[in-house]
């Protein structure tokens, strides 16, 4: 535990050093008094982001587009996990913390801005007759308490539960929402969404979870608690297997112009396409 | 005259440097593995690490026991040897002693090609063809099992066994076999009682090389074995030492990452032991020939 802490701390310190370097560069540049005309002047400097591994794709897509628009800005990303991202935002060691869970009540003094919503689809083999499962049923399947499809209204055949490897953001999201953290009994642990889809498509007994955007035609996404998994049901909150991607900022601290612009960009309509391409949905 | 001397000297230095690169690489990797692998072992405890039966690297109370990985790796390798060695040995006998030169020259490139196929392709074919096949044939609920890994590894180690065994069978002096035949032994008797025993050390070297390849393979195994940290069961999902590292490394941090390095160190020790054995065998073979 102590090791993890010290490692994170070291990483965060490196980042802070980096951020420090670039801000001095900003001062020497002619556009130093950006505060005078923050929107028209060319932005420069570094925007440090730190946190959720699940948000990697979204942040990568957003920062790439943002950096293309503002060539003098560098957006950095540290994949440390939501908890570490929130801590970094609290300590002020990063500009923007990234969290794929909402803030807990005890995590005060922070602002969370939802930039994207991620739906997690439960996928079955095409030949499976089951079309609807409750979250409780999914939880007991994941924990290995229910091992035959006939117990959840399907044919008399064993259930093969396919998931992602430890550390995967989708796995973390699924296990957190379904409340089966560290209690899952997997039959296969695969290292990519594509592999999960392929495994489910190849095995008629299989059940797996993938990000909503990656459900193809080869597997069928079932209803959860009677609600189909679509962008619409994720957005209106009726589909339960979903989570928010948050940008965490510290209350009462002035963000750099570049960081502000990045958050504005992430919320803009223009960013919607990039977020969608990265497999999530922009809230409206 | 002088220019020539300088060229000679410069080239000499370049040769020496190139020769040293492999040593630098081996020493560098060894030192790095030991330095990065030891901290986690020290923190977890050697006994808990090597003999712990539960691997839960991202749990809130993480457990880092790699006994399932070690046993899975050993059983997958052992299984692959069990299937691959008889086939490989008979194949090399066929190529060296039985096939007509024409037929042998058609089979040999095929075997050599087998060695050149990238492991991800083995994995892909295994995943798409072998895994569903195992599910149908054996009626198990999931085909991604230790058995699938064994089959894939058995095919992958064939080339190393065949090529080395064939070479050493070819090196058996003709007069041995002629003497055997002259004494009235049949061709088959000659092969198994004279040629194979005479080529024993080369064949063993091929097998050890095969073990090395099987225990070090990650990609193909990852695609067919299911990757769950279970104790090995023939028709159960398993995770090997190699796949344990590659499946978690991309997101790992802190002690989890260090523990993955430690797994690497364990694997490294395994491979070193195999290499030492291999060297002994090859040297032994040379002594026999002299």
Notes on the structure:
- The complex is a heterodimer of chains A (284) and B (290).
- With 284 residues, chain A is of the alpha/beta class.
- Chain A is built from nine helices and eleven strands.
- Chain A has helices spanning 2-28, 56-69, 82-91, 135-142, 169-178, 193-202, 231-235, 257-267, 269-277; strands at residues 45-51, 73-79, 96-99, 110-125, 132-133, 160-164, 188-190, 206-211, 219-221, 223-224, 242-250.
- In chain A, the strands form two sheets. In chain A, strands 1, 2, 3, 4, 6, 7, 8, 9 and 11 form a nine-stranded mixed β-sheet that branches. Chain A has a two-stranded parallel sheet with strand order 5-10.
- Chain A is elongated, with a radius of gyration of 21 Å.
- The two termini of chain A are 40 Å apart.
- In chain B, a hairpin with a 6-residue loop joins strand 1 (55-56) and strand 2 (63-64).
- In chain B, 79% of the residues lie in helices and 1% in strands.
- Chain B has a domain at 69-258: Orthogonal Bundle (MetI-like fold), CATH 1.10.3720.10.
- In chain B, 41% of the residues are buried.
- The mean pLDDT of chain B is 90.
- The two termini of chain B are 44 Å apart.
- The A-B interface holds A 3-4, 7-8, 53, 79-81, 157-160, 165-169, 172, 181-182, 186-191, 195, 198-199, 202-203, 205-206 and B 39, 43, 56-60, 127-128, 131-132, 135, 141-144, 222-223, 226-228, 237, 239, 246-248, 250-256, 258.
User: What fold name stands as the CATH topology of the largest domain in chain A?
Assistant: D-Maltodextrin-Binding Protein, domain 2
Given the helix and strand composition of chain A, which structural class is it? alpha/beta
The top level CATH class name of the domain at 69-258 in chain B: Mainly Alpha
**What is the averaged pLDDT score of chain B?**
90
Helix-strand pattern of chain B: HHEEHHHHHHHHHH
User: Count the strands of chain B?
Assistant: 2
* Neighbour order of strands in the largest sheet of chain B: 1-2
Mean pLDDT of chain A: 82
